[in-house]
């Protein structure tokens, strides 16, 4: 690799470089040399990318339960986030099953209500016979239970 391509942001931060040049001189040199300029742009983009990833991990840690005040590595943050997601998926599946069971139960009850309403609307043979048995018992003077 060429020494010119080893341009590093450390040179920008350090007021005392090994070459004794000022910060302005380094910037001018970086802008004059296309390789140095491209390297500086690449370094800045990479730094922004790393900062963005760091911010996303922080955001993820902040929304994962019981991790808001905890200092944790990225691996721990991801592992705990996966655990929470899997727990929520299981809860969702359980709730869907409960909902389906309740819908089925409700349909059964609605059918039962409709059947009972239908029975109330028209007297059936069993109702007639029970009414006639009671009438006969009443006429005979037998106690009705």
UniProtKB/TrEMBL annotation:
Task: Identify the PROSITE patterns for this entry.
Answer: BHLH (PS50888)
Q: Does the keyword Nucleus apply?
A: yes
Instruction: List, in alphabetical order, the Gene Ontology terms for molecular function in this entry.
Output: DNA binding; DNA-binding transcription factor activity; protein dimerization activity
| GO annotation terms (biological process) | positive regulation of transcription by RNA polymerase II
Q: Where is this region: Disordered?
A: 1-50, 121-145
InterPro entries of this UniProt entry? bHLH_dom, HLH_DNA-bd_sf
Record's Pfam families? HLH
Q: Which domain of life is it from?
A: Eukaryota
Q: Which SMART domains match?
A: HLH (SM00353)
Keywords, in A-Z order: DNA-binding, Nucleus
Q: What is this protein called?
A: Helix-loop-helix DNA-binding domain protein
**Domain BHLH: where?**
37-88
Q: Where is the composition biased (Acidic residues)?
A: 1-11
Of the GO CC terms on this record, one is:
RNA polymerase II transcription regulator complex
Q: What is the lineage of its organism?
A: Eukaryota, Metazoa, Ecdysozoa, Nematoda, Chromadorea
Would the keyword Magnesium turn up in this protein's UniProt record?
no
Q: Which family does it belong to?
A: Belongs to the MAX family.
């Amino acid at each position: 690799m060429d020494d010119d391509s080893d341009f590093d942001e450390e040179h920008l931060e350090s007021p005392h470089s090994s070459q004794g040049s000022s910060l302005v001189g380094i910037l001018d040199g970086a802008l004059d040399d296309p390789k140095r300029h491209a390297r500086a742009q690449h370094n800045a983009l990479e730094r922004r990318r790393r900062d963005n990833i760091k911010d996303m991990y922080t955001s993820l840690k902040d929304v994962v339960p019981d991790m808001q005040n905890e200092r944790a590595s990225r691996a721990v943050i991801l592992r705990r986030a996966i655990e929470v997601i899997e727990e929520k998926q299981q809860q969702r599946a359980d709730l869907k099953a409960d909902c389906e069971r309740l819908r089925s139960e409700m349909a059964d009850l609605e059918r039962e209500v409709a059947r009972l309403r239908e029975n109330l609307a028209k007297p059936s043979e069993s109702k007639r016979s029970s009414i006639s048995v009671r009438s006969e018992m009443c006429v005979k003077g037998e106690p009705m239970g």
